[in-house]
Amino acid sequence: MQMGKLLGFLLLSSTLFIGLVAADWNILNQKRKNGVRSSLKNYCESWRINVELNNIRGFEVVPQECVEYIQKYMTSSQYKADSQRAVEEVTLYLTSCCSLNGDGKDAWIFDVDDTLLSTVPYFKKHGFGGKKLNATSLEAWMRESKAPALEHTLKLFHEIKDRGLKIFLISSRKETLRSFTVDNLIKVGYHGWTSLMLRYVHPLQCL
């Protein structure tokens, strides 16, 4: 069974909001310690990239110095452009490396949050990670089934399905959120997947 190795490209920001920087980690302190003269913007950009690469782990909040930067990025055209480019790379990988036999043994795995469904609307109202994640509040929002689809990923989802691959969905959501998750996915245009596997992990253990 072949899997998309570049799936990580789609996880552009899912880790940004599920457990963010240890209380004693301060960007300005790091700047002084390392003797590096650079702008705060550069530091925040570096922090964001290293979160995506999973180099920075075990944190609870976005550094306060970087909250505004994260907000601007997540609501910018650059975020959408990055998402589109990631999907283009995945599509290229799919068309160039995989020989599909149509025997039902080929499959693709998608994560749900911030790959298929966006949590940006929730974090717009909750400080863009500048406050410790309130799991109860986030789950209440998930029960509303109002998360929008990531446009470019939605197109990729249907392209992969049309190629005859089985699609498996995974999520760290609780089993009690299954029906709300399914309703949300269908509502925004996702359908025809093979299985949805929910494997709840406490948000602070996801990194």
TrEMBL record:
Q: Give the originating organism.
A: Quercus suber
The encoding gene is: APS1_5
Task: Output this protein's name.
Answer: Acid phosphatase 1
Name the InterPro entries on file: Acid_phosphat_B-like, HAD-like_sf, HAD_sf
Q: Does the keyword Signal apply?
A: yes
Keyword line: Signal
Q: Does the keyword Signal apply?
A: yes
Q: Which residues form the signal peptide?
A: 1-23
